[in-house]
Amino acid sequence: MISIQTAAQLPIYQVQFWEKGTLFHSDNAYFIPNLIFNGVICKTNFPPNTAFRGFGGPQGMANIENVIQEIAIYLQKDALEIRRLNCYAHRGRNITPYGQVVKNHILPEIIDQLAETSRYSKRMKQVEEFNRKSQTHLRGLALTPMKFGISFTTTFLNQGNALVNVYRDGTVQVSTGGTEMGQGLNTKIRQLVADEFAISYQDVKLMITSTEKNNNTPPTAASASTDLNGIAAINACQKIRSKLCVVASKYFATKKERPQTFRQANLF
Questions:
Q1: What are the CA-CA distances from residue 185 to residues 175, 190, 191, 192 (Å)?
Q2: pTM (2 d.p.)
Q3: Which domains does the chain have, with CATH numbers?
Q4: 185: Cβ–Cβ under 8 A, 6 or more apart, which residues?
Q5: Residues 94-135: tens digit of each pLDDT
Q6: Rounded to an integer, what distance in angstroms lies between the CA atom of residue 103 and that of residue 123?
Q7: Alpha-carbon distance 236 to 163, whole Å?
Q8: pLDDT confidence bin for 3, thresholds 50/70/90
């Protein structure tokens, strides 16, 4: 069931899913005052067919985006206008269907800025002109916002761990529970560790994830691996650094010139 007002706002939306993990994303980035989402569990002999990397997000988003598109077609308006009108905003239009307040977001401002910098209106006119003249091909253009939750609803999975070893030659070896799969996790953790110790990025060596060094690791998923394992690495570095500071303060207690970094202090 879908209801729209003359202003093209979406006050009522009811939908039922047989796919896994779509309920948190059924509203996508839109504030809808009245929603009914029903998740139906089906016992079958088939695999779940859900998008593993999307955590069910694509399924829920596809439904509401189709609704937005249908409204735009019915009202003969640009779909971006409908999206912008219904997106999460501030002061009463920032509460999700499950009661979470969407804080510190600038979604309306981002949409407006992207529409301007991408010359969306000009390109859309070019697309429409092409479609009117073409007899064989059609083109399309869309600017779509997205609200995607990070971390796990199963809270015990929101944990990270790290093992940091400091060697006498000044290099640092780091092992974390995160798996590098091309997303740049290892690069970011190396940068964090280098910053904590005030050393060169090249002096930080990151090891392949292994239960030999990191146990009980959560999945590398939910867009949370840098936050979890990166902070774990920072915590480990800070513990080591605090002990190094004690050693440094004693060693340089009688020195006139104090080093600015651990490298200058030659503590390793």
A1: 12, 9, 10, 11
A2: 0.69
A3: 2-133 (3.30.365.10), 155-265 (3.30.365.10)
A4: 178, 179, 220, 225, 226, 229
A5: 999 888 898 888 999 999 999 999 999 999 999 999 999 999
A6: 32
A7: 7
A8: low
